[in-house]
């Protein structure tokens, strides 16, 4: 019986060439996307997904063509927030999937469109009880399939809503760098003002910098709350002494109206809300911080859309 030390190269499986083919397919599929922005946190519960959706809508309001890839496969929320729960994934004549879109043009690809409320994402396996050894690999294989199977077309922005976890953020950075080259994807981190959250995000920033993918900046979410009585933004957390080694691109106050919009599928932007105005300023800052890194597109046509009224 052969041991690992007896295997030369890929053992005749041609797996190296398969990986290279997949990376080429991912790069070609995203060639028409000007800016790839991965929104991460390292810490769960900081409002990263809500901020991603709000940021996408602000960018659309600025005239940009935008899509979101919900990469948090175990906790997909973007389909619900976009009002696209149950939206079909329809293949075109070439077999590629059209991006489901809201009436305002925002595209959202999320497995939450395919799962019913309370249903988990499961993978068929003969190794029951050993998911800790293989599930992450299957999730990244699924990410690669989505990046190649979806017709992304021409986009100004593709936002990735990443799962929580400092190690997961680094894994996504390494995956995207391997497939697309260093610097093709920008990382935007989300924190809240607490020492606990900022400490975890600091670890993510350190990991990204060490992995050759430094973040373009961070957003301080829940930076105070809007007092309905006086109209002022007041502190929500004690001042933090933890310094983050990245530029702060914006501070967004907590507003329960945003949570209500999420639950209702965000039927309108929430114009006039302090949080939405803060995210609008963040969108302008992000445009300046993230350069266009797309390759020359092969077509000027935008990807076909499955429009679902919202």
List keywords for this structure.
single chain; 310 residues; alpha/beta; Rossmann fold; eight-stranded mixed sheet; two-stranded parallel ribbon; 8 helices; 35% helix; 18% strand; globular; disordered C terminus
Explain how this protein is built.
It is a single chain. The protein is α/β, with parallel strands linked by helices and 310 residues long. The protein has a single domain, classed as Rossmann fold, CATH 3.40.50.300. 35% of the residues lie in helices and 18% in strands. It is built from 8 helices and 10 strands. Strands 1, 2, 4, 5, 6, 7, 8 and 9 form an 8-stranded mixed beta sheet that branches. Helix 1 packs across helix 4, helix 2 crosses helix 8 and helix 5 packs parallel to helix 6. It starts with 14 loop residues before the first helix and ends with a strand. The C terminus is likely disordered.
Task: Please describe the topology of this protein.
Elements: H1 15-29, E1 33-40, H2 48-61, E2 66-70, H3 78-82, E3 99-102, E4 107-109, H4 131-149, E5 155-161, H5 166-180, E6 185-191, H6 195-210, E7 217-226, E8 233-234, E9 248-254, H7 256-263, H8 274-289, E10 305-308
Parallel strand pairs: 1-5, 1-6, 2-4, 2-5, 3-10, 6-7, 7-9
Antiparallel strand pairs: 7-8
Shape: globular
The CATH class is: Alpha Beta
Which CATH-level-2 architecture? Answer: 3-Layer(aba) Sandwich
CATH-level-4 superfamily name: P-loop containing nucleotide triphosphate hydrolases
| Low-pLDDT residue spans | 296-310
Q: What structural class should be given to the helix and strand makeup?
A: alpha/beta
Helix coverage percent: 25-40%
Mean pLDDT: 86
CATH third-level topology: Rossmann fold
